Each structure stands twice: as structure tokens, then as C-alpha cells.
Automatic annotation (TrEMBL):
Keywords: 4Fe-4S, GTP-binding, Iron, Iron-sulfur, Lyase, Metal-binding, Molybdenum cofactor biosynthesis, Nucleotide-binding, S-adenosyl-L-methionine. Pfam families: Mob_synth_C, Radical_SAM. GO terms for molecular function: 4 iron, 4 sulfur cluster binding; cyclic pyranopterin monophosphate synthase activity; GTP 3',8'-cyclase activity; GTP binding; metal ion binding. InterPro entries: Aldolase_TIM, Elp3/MiaA/NifB-like_rSAM, MoaA, MoaA-like, MoaA_NifB_PqqE_Fe-S-bd_CS, MoaA_twitch, MoCo_biosynth_MoaA/MoaC, rSAM. It comes from the Bacteria. Gene3D superfamilies: Aldolase class I. It catalyses: GTP + AH2 + S-adenosyl-L-methionine = (8S)-3',8-cyclo-7,8-dihydroguanosine 5'-triphosphate + 5'-deoxyadenosine + L-methionine + A + H(+). Coiled coil: none annotated. Residues 5-231 form the Radical SAM core domain. SUPFAM superfamilies: Radical SAM enzymes. This is GTP 3',8-cyclase. The keyword Iron applies. One of its GO terms (biological process) is Mo-molybdopterin cofactor biosynthetic process.
């Protein structure tokens, strides 16, 4: 079992399979993209599968595939299939923007994928283009429809941005009236690749009161252990509403997750700078037991929360790195 120095059991791994993305969302990266990781610095499929196997042997039973946009990676569907067959893995899920996902949905169902997080910041086609700098709204909506058709649980992830999509909050909530999908509103974070300050106005409290004013009968429901979202139910609605305090970081106390970047860096916290590069350790010839010891020792040093991680590790420059390079 993986346990940090605060006694928290780590059973959730977020694996970023690629840093590249086919969108250019304003809150994630510059319009011209980023300096992408060189091919030989990315982990191979075999290295990713090996690390996932090691983590499941250490007690991790939930893995989320992220990016960048994971389906940009060549033959990623084969990698997902192999990961899905690992012993001890109970929950394999994916975060995607939906542009390339629709064609793979039957396979994902076959692999036992139970949940997909779908990034969607607006229900307005013009605002979608303004935010993502791409005309692909119809592809995302087709992916949403087909995921629901295949009865795969959908969580819509919406980054709330002042001056860009505030008018979409209530329509997105209303979307859950009839659709069995949850929507989760996320505080904007500084990881935008632009060296610009995220707006703090629309924090958890502001988002909550905005929704509550429109739906006064909205009620709190229980949050699963380790959940990053505060969850709510509107009576009669098919889906739920969640709010993720990603910047104010009020959910860190029972954190149960770690992440691996596309280049193989193990990060104990989103707000942590650097970490152990497991890919490099593999390529120097470390065996599985040696890798396990490295992982155990690293996770034991996991910071108490995101504020401590930022204070101890994060430089001003790395605070504004893109989420695509960190791992969604």
C-alpha cells in the first residue's frame, strides 16, 4: 500500500500519455501552442504500461488517462486496452476534449471504461471557438451523445472564466435536467502557459451562490472520499452538479492521487515543481523492485496540500506552465 507521511492511502494515478493537444484553450496554452516534448523524451507504451503495472501492484486501483489530449497519441487505444487488463485495477477512466473520441467509444465500452470526463466550457458554438480557437463544437457534442448512448458515465468539466463563459453556467446546469450527465465547474488555475494571472473572482463560493440563486432547492449530497468536487443535487434532475476549488485548494486534506507527466515525472501534487523522473530510472536499468522503492520514498514526501507544495517547490515561472505539460 502506498501511504504518505500523513497516513493518506494513495490509490489513484493520473497518467498523462501526451502533452500535445488539438485545441488551444485560452486557459491552458498560447494560441501558437507550446514547445512540445521531443519524441525520445516521451515515455513509450511499454514504459507506461510497466509503470501502471507497478502502481497497481502497490495498491493503486484507479487510473485516469489524461494529456494534453490523450487521443492525439498514436495508437493510444491499444495502450488503453492493455492498461484495462491489469490485475488489481478497478476503475480506468479518461479525460478528453472529445474531438477524436467518438470513433473509439465502442472499444472503450468493451474495455470496461466506466467514466469519461469531457471538457466543455460552453454550449455556444461561437464562444467555443473564442475559448478553444478551434471550430470543433459539433464534434464534442456528437461525442457527448454517443457516450450517453453507450451508457458510459459522463462528467462535463467546465473551467469558469470571467468575461468568457459566465453566461454558460446556468445552461450547463440545465443540461443535467434530462441528461444523465454530471457537470463540474472548475476554478480557473494559473497553469495556462501564458504567464498571466487567472481571475480569482469566480471562485467556489461565487460559482455556488450563482447557481443557488437560480436553483434555490439545490441541496448538498455526499462527496466520495478523495473527491476534488463539492457535489450537489437539484431535485428532479437526472445529473448532478459539482464545483472544484482547483485554485483555492480546499479539498487537499484527504488527497489520494499522484500523477505522471508525459515525460515520466512523478508529481505528488499539481502545484509541485519537478519530481522523480521514472522514465529516466527505467532507462538506466532499474528493476521493478528498485522502481517500487523509488515510488514509495517519493510518495512518502507528498506535501500536506497544494499551498504547501507551492510554497516549497513552485517557482514563479513554473506556476504558469501549461496543464498540458503537467498532465491534465
Amino acid at each position: 500500500m502506498l501511504t504518505d507521511k500523513f497516513g493518506r492511502h494513495i490509490n489513484y494515478l493520473r497518467l498523462a500519455v501526451v502533452d500535445r493537444c488539438n485545441l488551444r484553450c485560452t486557459y491552458c496554452m498560447p494560441e501558437n501552442g507550446l514547445s512540445w516534448i521531443k519524441q525520445n523524451e516521451l515515455m513509450t507504451d511499454e514504459e507506461m504500461l510497466r509503470l501502471c503495472s507497478i502502481f497497481t501492484e502497490l495498491g493503486v486501483n484507479k487510473i485516469r488517462i489524461t494529456g494534453g489530449e490523450p487521443f492525439v497519441r498514436k495508437n493510444v487505444i491499444d495502450l488503453i486496452g492493455k492498461i484495462s487488463r491489469l490485475d488489481g485495477l478497478n476503475d480506468l477512466s479518461i479525460t478528453t476534449n472529445g474531438l477524436l473520441t467518438e470513433q473509439y467509444i465502442p472499444k472503450l465500452k468493451e474495455f470496461g471504461i466506466q467514466s469519461i470526463n469531457l471538457s466543455l466550457d460552453t454550449l455556444n458554438e461561437e464562444r467555443f471557438f473564442t475559448i478553444t480557437r478551434r471550430k470543433s463544437f459539433d464534434k464534442v457534442m456528437k461525442t457527448l451523445d454517443r457516450l450517453l448512448q453507450y451508457e458510459i458515465k459522463v462528467k462535463i468539466n467546465t473551467v469558469v472564466m470571467e468575461g468568457q463563459n459566465i453566461e454558460d453556467i446556468i445552461p450547463l446546469v440545465k443540461l443535467t435536467r434530462d441528461l444523465p450527465a454530471d457537470v463540474r465547474f472548475i476554478e480557473e488555475m494559473p497553469f495556462n502557459g501564458n504567464n498571466t494571472q487567472a481571475s480569482l473572482k469566480w471562485n467556489y463560493s461565487q460559482i455556488y451562490h450563482h447557481i443557488k440563486n437560480h436553483f434555490p432547492d439545490m441541496e448538498k449530497i455526499s462527496d466520495p472520499k478523495g473527491s476534488t468536487s463539492y457535489n450537489y443535487k437539484i431535485p428532479g434532475f437526472a445529473g448532478d452538479v459539482g464545483i472544484i476549488a482547483a485554485y483555492t485548494r480546499s479539498f487537499c486534506g484527504d488527497c489520494n492521487r499522484v500523477r505522471i507527466t508525459p515525460s515520466g515525472v512523478l508529481r505528488n501534487c499539481l502545484y509541485e515543481d519537478g519530481g522523480i523522473n521514472l522514465k529516466d530510472e527505467i532507462r538506466t536499468g532499474k528493476n521493478n523492485e528498485e522502481l517500487k522503492n523509488i515510488i514509495i520514498n517519493s510518495i512518502h514526501k507528498k506535501p500536506k496540500d497544494g499551498w504547501e507544495a507551492e510554497k516549497l517547490n513552485l517557482t514563479p515561472a513554473s506556476l504558469h506552465q501549461s496543464m498540458a505539460t503537467i498532465g491534465g
